Amino acid sequence: MFLKGVRQLIGPLSQSPGRRPFPARPSLERPFQFSRQLASAGTLPQLTKDRYPYVKRGQYANLDHHHLKYFKDLLGPNRVITDTDECQGFNIDWIRSVRGYSQCVLKPKTTEEVSSILSFCNEHRLAVCPQGGNTSLVAGSVPVFDEVVLWTGLMNEIIHLDDTSGVLTCQAGCILENLENYVANHDLMIPLDLGAKGSCHIGGNVSTNAGGLRLLRYGNLHGSILGIEAVKADGEVIDCLNTLKKDNTGYHLKHLFIGSEGTLGVVTKVAISCPTKPKAINVALLGLNSFEEVLRTLKKAKRELGEILSSCELIDNLCMDLVLKHLKVPPPIGQHNFYMLIETHGSNLIHDEEKTNSFLENVMNEGLALDGTTTNEVSKMKSIWDLRERITEALLHDGYIFKYDISLPTESFYSLVEIMKERLGDRSHRVCGYGHLGDGNIHLSISVSEFTKEILDLIEPYVYEVTSKFKGSVSAEHGIGFRKPKYMHYSKSNEAIMLMKHIKNLMDPNGILNPYKVLPP
Ligand code: FAD
Ligand code: MLT
Ligand code: ZN
Known about the structure:
The chain is an alpha+beta fold. It has an eight-stranded mixed β-sheet with strand order 1-14-11-13-12-16-17-15, with helices on both faces. The N and C termini lie far apart (61 Å). The chain folds into four domains: 6-26 and 278-392, Alpha-Beta Plaits (2-Layer Sandwich); 31-151, Uridine Diphospho-n-acetylenolpyruvylglucosamine Reductase, domain 2, CATH 3.30.43.10; 158-273, Uridine Diphospho-n-acetylenolpyruvylglucosamine Reductase, domain 3; 399-490, Alpha-Beta Plaits. α3 runs antiparallel to α5 (111-124) and α11 runs antiparallel to α13 (349-365). It has helices spanning 35-40, 48-51, 65-75, 84-91, 111-124, 176-184, 202-208, 215-218, 221-224, 254-257, 291-305, 317-327, 349-365, 378-389, 391-395, 415-424, 453-459, 462-469, 494-507, and strands at residues 6-8, 80-81, 105-106, 128-131, 148-151, 158-162, 167-171, 225-231, 237-240, 266-273, 280-288, 309-316, 338-346, 369-375, 400-407, 430-436, 441-448. Bound molecules: flavin-adenine dinucleotide, D-malate and zinc ion.
């Protein structure tokens, strides 16, 4: 069946789905995989201590040769990095917006080693910055001053996969994409997918409660993570590495570590519930004229695709222009003000095709979508997904980026972009929006030639005031990190922030874990 006005990219529908097992989505190209080298290449970002002089170094010890001797005795010399050039990539964040000056990166392999490191650092009042793939977009993963970096990249063992229950247990330093490939061989999938999957670690994902591209369907990590093992600031190991779906024995401590961004403990192992890999996947890209039509299409997608809808993402025209230019690819459909990427995951190709085609026909006939393309071919789905997933990377070529990751009621989703566009006028290169429409999570990006305090002051706190007026959240999925502690109050009450501070004091009384992050001073 051909859709009126929809360019058909659909693969050979006539093939029997039973005889054509649907292949897993291929790995995306991962230019950011080499973030550490990239981070330390080219002009260095200003030191964080100079750019943000109001943040003062805490009363922590200065690293000395006694400390280094302890670390080297514990880990061996190769797993204690002190070379300035080698440390550089661990000091600079992925979007090159901050720079610490740590002179020590530790690379433990086991929970016991993490425990010994933290116990020692706690006793000697050395501040520690836990780091996974260093893809944080809120400057949470790099030192602000000279904190010791505890990097989890060598903690990369898969411990067990129960392919009946679908529970995968692994160390925290496993790269998300490696886990995805591993479970795919067992007809399972990781319930989290994001553009940084080639670099980010599952421990980093858990510590940020990362949302990603399919939260709409698979929920967030508070639901999928069944168990966690973590090490407290004093070195005590908290074993909550449960693999049961149901366990109501007392307080659910694992939730304290999910999303606490390395401030309450270092996550060392996780158990994650993996759904069955979908046998049928469809991806459609639609072009629309107005945000009003986007909203109506979203509602229709939810109603008509129902249980097979796995993703519903928005890209505005400025983001699309930039990503097409960056990827050097021709536009897959005509030019429009908005684009929606809609994906389905199901178990029956014919059934899903019918549903998807009927939905697309309806949105075309009703004049909601003006143009579109749909496919179930792996390479074509990848090309469409690239347009969405690689916006972050494309933006880096547009100058210095002020990034905002905001939750808003769906009807106000795009208003923030329009408001900021008007406020900034020609003082920015580009004010654009994209994101997880189905979850009400917009990524507002403002690119300028270079960072200046004047432009920062024009944007913040205004952007958060507007967010608060819309009853939104100042962080939907990236966390608070270093960038947002002073704005947390726009989304949380004083009482809630005080309780968080009490919990922090209880679990890390000396404040050695990821200081200057998350909690307002
Ligand atoms: P890092 O960046 O290394 O660390 C993140 C935070 O967790 C830091 O505060 C760090 O101290 C802490 N941490 C790391 N490991 C541990 C540990 N084992 N124990 C305790 N604390 C730890 N986020 C989303 O939510 N959705 C997206 O769709 C998304 N897409 C992205 C796309 C790109 C291209 C990039 C660069 C980033 C994206 N992010 C997204 C942001 C980022 O949060 C995620 O990439 C990821 O969850 C971070 O994992 P990481 O291993 O890189 O952690
Ligand atoms: C995304 O959804 O692409 C990520 O959260 C990264 C970003 O905000 O750019
Ligand atoms: Zn996102």
